[in-house]
Structure formats: structure tokens, C-alpha cells
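Title: Prediction job returns without error message
Component: structure pipeline
Severity: low
Priority: P3
Assignee: unassigned

Description:
Job completed but the reporter wants confirmation the result is attached to the right record. Sequence as submitted:
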Amino acid sequence: MKRRDFLKAGATGTVAAAATTLAAPAIAQDVRQWRMVTAWPKNLPGPGVAAQMLADRITALSGGRIEVKLFAAGEIVPGNGVFDAVGQGTAELYHAVPAYWGSKSKGILLFGSQPFGLTAPEQAGWMIHGGGQALYDEIYARFNLKPFLCGNSGPQWAGWFRTEINSVDDLKGLKFRSTGLASEMCSKLGMAVQAMSGPAMFQALQSGALDAGEFIGPWTDSALGYYQIAKNYYWPGVGEPSSAEECAVNLEAYNDLPDDLKEAVQRACASLY
């Protein structure tokens, strides 16, 4: 190789190497690493699987510019602590259900489910076309959150009971696990309602701290083993004709996104609805 060609090639290689060195940090700076905390055990059939699908879809639809890593209940915060954790910035987003946050605002419960209320398609229609999303945004903004519905379990079952139920009178005094507006309905029927996680419900049934409870439906509930203790499983349930799942993003983190990444988050959530 001639001296002039060698120097030219060397200079080209040096420039290319310098460009690579400079480009890598710029690309890295454009990647947001988000932590998703959830109310579920990892890969729990139903919501746990859906949470991982959502994390993967946000990452994919953002072209890798938002890398979402999922943390199951208890890995960073307890399942019932995800709402506050994301609002306070401990994590960037969560996957849970609106039915868990009635202590924050009773209005939140309307976005999850209502006894004898909206089915999943009706809930979606209200949110998308009936002004529901605007109300949803308004309430959650008070807690520094941007919310999206991102799935629905459909009609939930009446629950698992240690003893057979033959009349409404048999419900009175039962220690029963439920959440949301359904829990208020159960209280009016004379049941002693307790809120707890799905795994905690198994332990409470086993110890006798609960007489009965409802969680989601056969697919999810079977994985948690309720059938081993409570042999009576009743359908239909009227407490939750649908049960919406949600993703909420820290409002500051969401507002910091460029428009195309906001759209990626929104589309990922809508793809699971």
C-alpha cells in the first residue's frame, strides 16, 4: 500500500472510531430505563402475565428508547404500595387495578368495576367515547399519575367458600375477601369484608381467618390454590361484571417524554384492552 493511501485509510479509521465513541453515549442518553412495579406475583396467570406483556410492548413500540423492567409485588414495594411508589417517583409506572385505590378516592373505583355495572366493552366505550378518560386523568393527576386502562378480566366469579351457600342468609357474618365497590355491596349483605392480596387470601383461608373470598376467576385462582381449601366455588358473580386492569405512569416522567414515546406508551396499553 502506498504511503498516501495508508495515511488516508488510517485517518478514515480514526474518524470512524471517534464517531463511534461519540455516538454511543448520545444513544445511551436517549434510552429511558423504567421500573414497573406490580400488584401481582411474577407471571401470575392473568394479570401477572399481562403486566410482563405490557412491559415488553412498551419497550418494543418505543424502539427500545424506553426499557421497562418489571418488578413483582414485594421486590421493590408491596403490591398495595405501587400507587404511592409511582406517584412519589420510586418507580416510573405500575400495573394493578383501580379497585385497590378506594382509600385514595372513592371516584377511582368507578374506573375498575361496579356491582351490576358495566361490562368490559361498555367500560371501554365509556372511557374512549364517553368522557371517562378525561375524568380518569383528572383524578389521578392529583396523585402525580397519568393512568391508562390496559386490559380487563371480564366477569369475575362470586368466590370460594369453605361451607356451602344455600341462601342469602348464609352469607351473613362470613369473613370474606373482596375489593372495590363490590366490598361495599358485601358489607350491606352482612359479610365481614377484608381486603388483601391474592396470595394472602390463600393463607387466610388456610388459617381460618377467612371463611370465603373472591379474587379473579378460574385461571388465575387455580394457580393460587384456593380449591385446595375452599371446595365450594360459585358463579356468576354480580360484584364485578368486568374488572379493568390499569397502568399508571409517574406524571412527571410521562410529561418528559417526546410525543412519539407518549404515543408508544398509550398504544401499548390500548393493545391489551
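Comment from assignee: result matches the submitted record. Residues 1-27 have pLDDT under 50 and may be disordered.
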